[in-house]
């Protein structure tokens, strides 16, 4: 009986870490990033992360390589700084192209490859991303 209680203590919210955010970022940041405070942006982050992981696994054979990690970091930065915030449309419907030209092409290649594979590996994320794509994009903020 005591062994069960001890194992439950290990998994309390105070001892677990949130996925996707390093402790160094938490210590340096005074306010949470938009993707930490919004379910919609957190889902967008999970989607791009899953796509890059699928692409890297199949093309670079293993864990995220330096190039793919760099692309993922850049995507996270763009997501955190999105001017639309929670109202962010999917990238295909966005009126603002916030990615650098070379990065935009890299993400396009990743999405073309990983998009169809997402249906098998992450069906719920795929469905939610598809549904998000049906929404109208907000007007461009000047």
Report the β-strand fraction as a percent range. under 5%
Mean pLDDT score: 75
Q: Domain count, please report it.
A: 1
Low-confidence segments, given as residue ranges, are: 1-29
Oligomeric state, counting identical vs distinct chains = single chain
Number of strands: 0
Distance between the termini: 62 Å
Rg from Cα: 17 Å
Q: Based on CA inertia axes, which overall geometry fits?
A: globular
Sketch the topology as an H/E string, one letter per element: HHHHHHH
By secondary-structure content and strand pairing, the structural class works out as mainly alpha
Largest sheet: none
Give the helix tally: 7
**Helix percentage:** 55-70%
Please sum up the structure shown:
With 142 residues, the protein is mostly helical. The chain has helices at 2-10, 23-28, 34-37, 39-60, 66-80, 101-121, 123-133. The protein has one domain.
Q: How does the SSE layout of this entry go?
A:
Layout: H1 2-10, H2 23-28, H3 34-37, H4 39-60, H5 66-80, H6 101-121, H7 123-133
Helix pairs in contact: 4-5, 4-6, 4-7, 6-7
Report on this structure.
It is a single chain. The chain is an all-alpha fold and 142 residues long. It has one domain (34-133). It is 62% helix and 0% strand. The chain has 7 helices and no strands. It has helices spanning 2-10, 23-28, 34-37, 39-60, 66-80, 101-121, 123-133. Mean pLDDT is 75; it is low at 1-29.
């Amino acid at each position: 009986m005591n062994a069960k209680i001890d194992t439950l203590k290990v998994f309390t919210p105070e001892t677990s870490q949130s996925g996707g955010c390093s402790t160094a970022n938490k210590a340096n940041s005074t306010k949470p990033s938009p993707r930490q405070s919004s379910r919609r942006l957190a889902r967008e982050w999970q989607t791009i992360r899953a796509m890059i992981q699928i692409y890297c696994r199949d093309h670079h054979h293993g864990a995220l390589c330096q190039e793919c990690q760099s692309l993922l970091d850049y995507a996270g930065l763009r997501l955190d700084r999105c001017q639309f915030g929670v109202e962010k449309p999917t990238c295909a419907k966005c009126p603002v192209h916030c990615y650098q030209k070379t990065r935009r092409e890299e993400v396009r290649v990743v999405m073309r490859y990983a998009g169809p594979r997402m249906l098998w590996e992450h069906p719920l994320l795929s469905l939610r991303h598809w549904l998000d794509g049906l929404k109208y994009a907000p007007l461009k903020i000047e």
